[in-house]
Amino acid sequence: MKKLTIIIALLICCPIAQAASPADVAAAAKIIAKTSKMLEKYALAGVELEAPEPRADAEGEYVVPYTADGAVTAWAEKALQASVGSAAGKEAGGKAAGMLAKKVPFGGLMGKKVKDTAGAQGAVMAAGGWEFIRESSDQSFDDIDDTAVFMHVTHADSAGYSEALSAAFDIYPDLKKRYSGAIKKAQKEASKAQK
Question: Does residue 69 carry a pLDDT above 90?
Answer without folding.
Answer: yes
